[in-house]
Amino acid sequence: MFNFNPREDKFFVMFIDEAKNIHESAILLKKGFENLDNKNEIAKLLGDLEHKGDLMVHDNIIELNNAFITPIDREDIFRIIKKMDNVLDDIDSAANRLIMYDIKEVTEESLEMCDMIIEITSELLKLMEELKKIGKRNSMVEKIREINAIEHKGDKLYRRTITNLFKNTDPIEIIKWKDIYLILENTLDSCEQIAAIVEGVVMKHA
């Protein structure tokens, strides 16, 4: 049985708070792609959420260093923290590419990838909410499978999109969009990597 005291349980609360911040950022990212006239304002809001995420990482690491006992392995806590930070960094980077490359019109594929990021970060939040139930009845395995399925769907879309992109005759557009698509795909990959870490935690506590 796992009986966490409030200090130990704080790690799970932190994970949930970080996942909420990530999901909010994903929703904003889609708005940035849909509303290019407001891309600067939306990028600033995302920058604020990214900074908020950095503070969360800092606080989590301090808490981890000060903790005598942790509910799951320290290494797993640290890896989850860093991977969630990577997701947030990628979302912020994708929004800023719209400004850096002066994107005037987005593609249907990029909007579809943004939808997948919203979907996968929603599942990531649900997974973090389930993680606090480790050692009890939970639906973590189902959430992990769902995240894997979304990432797999994203992989297929990415490959198809890049194939079509190189049929474009404008080399500048190819360079711009190849970079943007790669960042969006990396965001999905990082979410799947978090799910893989959690899957390892589940196996350890099975």
Automatic annotation (TrEMBL):
Pfam families: PhoU_div. Belongs to the UPF0111 family. The lineage of its organism: Bacteria, Bacillati, Bacillota, Clostridia, Eubacteriales. This is TIGR00153 family protein. PANTHER family: UPF0111 PROTEIN YKAA (PTHR37298:SF1). It comes from the Bacteria. Coiled coil: none annotated. It comes from Clostridium thermobutyricum.
